[in-house]
């Protein structure tokens, strides 16, 4: 029990250090990138508030004075560091709302999309990978390999357009974009999930082949267990550790792809909000959205560490040592 607590303490300490370092790094980089974009920042913010047709030099000057955009860059950066130390992300320069309230609402939509995408990957990738691993060289195995190569090679934006044209426009089965329909999440989830399912199928195949060739699996069969019983009792748990680790490493695929996919499908998540914040030069929203996307990656890795620790007792002994 003490070894398990020590392992958990080590994992939580590493992730806490990552969160602090990530917050400072992401926020600082976004700050300088937003300030270095071409064009007048005050004019873009005023356009986001009042509309491009009503923007004037007077309105831009008023925004510049109100937000202190004429202050030295280093002073604005120090102020933001102080706010982030107090867990204060500030207010949106365009809407005037709290960044926390904006981000929490959008984060829920992104998590819904990520969970749906993971469900697609698991439902599609795990059965194909398990079957391919137990029947290596068969028709399903060769077909899975071909599909994995194609799906991993197709960029998410191209796959999104193909799904829009085929499923939404030609068949009319699902809405093209937005979140006003119960099935609106399916197309973006398929766009993100199919690419992840392709790699998951190959990793599951390799893990199942290794598990089926292991001494524990062979010993279970010599005890009189059928192949199915040996697979359920011994093979699946042994093969689960590399599969869970793969999902955690490639969870960044969901975070990165969310920026493109949410924008294409007008899904009201963090990625969509980040794109609009960049266009509006809304620096607090850019920093808040980017920070939350980075934290999502850390949380995914923490969940994967927890899963691998529960599946593989050897990791608990290694962490304790």
Automatic annotation (TrEMBL):
Pfam families referenced in this protein's UniProt entry, alphabetically: BPD_transp_1
This protein's UniProt keywords: Cell membrane, Membrane, Transmembrane, Transmembrane helix, Transport
Similarity comment: Belongs to the binding-protein-dependent transport system permease family.
Name by which UniProt lists this protein: ABC transporter permease
SUPFAM superfamilies, sorted: MetI-like
GO molecular function: dipeptide transmembrane transporter activity
Superkingdom per UniProt: Bacteria
Chain ranges of the ABC transmembrane type-1 domain: 107-304
Topology within the bilayer: Multi-pass membrane protein
InterPro entries, A to Z: MetI-like, MetI-like_sf
